[in-house]
Amino acid sequence: MSLFISQAHAATEGPAGGGFEMLIMLGMFAVIFYFMIYRPQSKRVKEHKNLIASMGKGDEVLTSGGLVGKISSISEENDFLAIELNPNNEVVIKKDFVTAVLPKGTLKSL
């Protein structure tokens, strides 16, 4: 039988990497994940919540759909606001879709 199969000799030492090294590696990945993905995203969410809370009637805003207009009314109970695109057109959108509050006079310059 040993004619066709070479003899395998067991190594006297354990495997090349231990379990402790694997835990250190997982910990490093968790730290990288936190600083590169979770923390910047939570900062953006906090800034957007502050932006939504600071909006008022008469502010000029930009929506995620690309609409630019002036806030004509805000509904506090169901998080919707009406944006006046021009004196004849008004749209109602959810507050979450506002991406930026523009400086005063932006609509006149467009």
Structure description:
With 110 residues, the chain is α+β, with helices and mostly antiparallel strands. It has 2 domains: 26-55; 56-108, SH3 type barrels (Roll), CATH 2.30.30. It contains 2 helices and 5 strands; from the N terminus they run H-E-E-E-E-E-H. The protein has helices at residues 19-54, 106-109; strands spanning 60-63, 68-75, 80-86, 89-94, 98-102. It is rod-shaped, with a radius of gyration of 29 Å.
Tell me the CATH architecture of the largest domain. Roll
Distance separating the two termini? 89 Å
Helix content: 25-40%
The CATH class of the largest domain turns out to be Mainly Beta
Mean pLDDT, nearest integer? 88
What form results from the Cα inertia axes? rod-shaped
What strand order characterises the main sheet?
Answer: 4-3-2-1-5
Overall radius of gyration: 29 Å
CATH topology term of the largest domain: SH3 type barrels
Count of discrete alpha- or pi-helical segments spanning 4 or more residues: 2
Going by helix content, strand content and strand pairing, the class is alpha+beta
Beta-strand fraction estimate: 25-35%
Number of domains in the coordinates? 2
How do the SSEs run, as a string of H and E? HEEEEEH
- Specify the biggest β-sheet: 5 strands, antiparallel
Number-wise, the strands total 5
Poorly predicted spans: none
Keywords: Cell membrane, Membrane, Protein transport, Translocation, Transmembrane, Transmembrane helix, Transport
Organism: Vibrio superstes NBRC 103154
Membrane topology: Single-pass membrane protein
Family: Belongs to the YajC family.
